[in-house]
Amino acid sequence: PDGDIDFDDLIAFAINYDQFRCGGTALQGGGGPIGIGGKPIADAVNLTAEVPVFMEPNREYTISLRVSDPGAVKGYHLVFDYDHDMIDVVDIEAGQAFSTVDQSFFYVDSKSANVDITGVVFGADAMFADNEIATVTIRSKASGRLMFSDDLLDVRDHEGQPIDVAFSLNGSTNPGMLPTSFSLSQNYPNPFNPTTTIQLALPTASNYRLTIYNIAGQVVDEFSGYSEAGFVTIDWDASRLASGIYLYRVVAGSFTDTKKMVLLK
Fold first, then answer.
1. What domains lie within the chain, and their CATH numbers?
2. Which residue has the higher pLDDT, 93 or 26?
3. Is residue 259 predicted with pLDDT exceeding 50?
4. Does the CA dihedral 233-239-245-248 come out positive or negative?
5. How far apart are CA 117 and CA 99, in angstroms?
6. What confidence tier does 29 reach under pLDDT thresholds 50, 70, 90?
């Protein structure tokens, strides 16, 4: 004992609870390897965060966290980092997986500067039957891409053993996340060396032109094309240019906007 109650203690408690209090019957496996008690086992799972491909300012979005093999998961402790200048976290809730079991525990560390969540299922015969393990509602402060990265991924099987986790972002382009107005994102990263990404939001199909200028007003690069409603992503490589301040201006229909970026070699 180390005097602290942590995720290891929670998993140990849950397993002991199952063995000595529940005394459940063996589960009938629904495909895949079967472990002790008839529960599925997995050496690795995929964890996906379904995020907007582009955010408009002052709008709420819900990130859905999904695991590929929910039945193999006894519990998890997940920590995610995000750009505090881009978003505020409005709410964090248990996902649909928790509605598929009778007894469970879901905890959000409200004191953490990150998204820090813990979940576990109780019951000798119980296992998650839906792959959504949590939802995170955010409010955007500015337009641009959401930066959401993993700091800690601790997922355990029904015997308390760690499961390897591969984390990825899945950009959602469902109608609820299509842009409702034209906007030009701040490039990311900024400052950059030597590549950076710029995104343009198009609420309707449009021709567009993105022009990049040096501080003297000379054109150093240009991108143009046509796109259906959605998001246009432009990756700019400034390897051939010197460090300094650059301006980029977009024209799409009647919409125009100009922003500044810094190349720092």
1. 7-172 (2.60.40.680), 178-263 (2.60.40.1930)
2. 93
3. yes
4. negative
5. 17
6. very low
